[in-house]
Amino acid sequence: RRARTAGESLVFYAPELNARAADAMALESRLRRAIDQQEFVLYYQPKVTLADRRICGVEALMRWMEPGQGMVPPGQFIPVLEECGLIGEVGQWALKKALHDQSEWRNAGLHAPRVAVNVSPLQLRRPDFADDIVALVARSSSNELELEITESVIMDNVERNIDALGMVRAAGVSVAVDDFGTGYCSLSYIAKLPVTSLKIDRAFIVGMSSGPEGMAIVSSIIALAHALKLKVVAEGVETEEQARLLHLLRCDEAQGYLFCRPVPAETITALLQRDMPLPME
Ligand code: C2E
Ligand code: MG
Ligand code: MG
Ligand code: MG
């Protein structure tokens, strides 16, 4: 077909675009209903200290339990919540809920782990982001809240984020750089970021088995983190060999299906009561 004019191509693509717009609108109204009906749930995935494999933290991972649809993973609805301006509300709910669950573990006399909540780009960009977090922590009895922010999101408008994260840190909140290694963090900035840990992206953990280069990348990230006095956490650890190598390389903490999948809060309660190394037999 010969080159089309703009008008022709609009006609050509219009039906498809309309179908997609209709889908998006339907999803948006389902999400609004989900907020009203409280269909969002926090699952938690343990982080373990590699030295003893005991739970040192948990990461809150959101799920959408839509009646008749089963469990919808966050990749399918978080971006939509962002697009329609609903992420602020749901994100605030997740922070409160995670702090609430942590206080329940403490009230049950358990050793309540540090609780990490993922922060989306739009949440971080809001002018009162830091003030809201500081107020939330001041009102809660929590001692250990951690925010996980992906490297690419921190690097987008990095100067501003350094200020906001500095305020959050001053309130005693930890900050982890999530998916580290995938976001082109310039080395001149990494030392200036007011963060407490780096989470090595799962892709690099997978890459460790592919040969010496893969190992070199992971051991360099670990050395970089330690040189900057940051803790380093491996995500997506699925095999015993990966866990053993990471421990040999002096990685501090790890998270992944090998130890435990994301589970409901009650399962975390049971694991804390049991107080044993992971994985469970
Ligand atoms: P993330 O923060 O990097 O979370 C890690 C993802 O890897 C989770 O997927 C987790 O279930 C999965 N995972 C953990 N261990 C393993 C493993 O051993 N192997 C493999 N293949 N995967 C593993 P999930 O729960 O689908 O979450 C995906 C992403 O959605 C998260 O990536 C995070 O960026 C985002 N997300 C989740 N909950 C929230 C939330 O409450 N707020 C915001 N803004 N984002 C969230
Ligand atoms: Mg995360
Ligand atoms: Mg991650
Ligand atoms: Mg990830």
From TrEMBL:
Span of domain EAL: 24-276
Signal peptide residue numbers: none
Highest taxon listed in the record's lineage: Bacteria
UniProt protein name: EAL domain-containing protein
Species name: Thermomonas carbonis
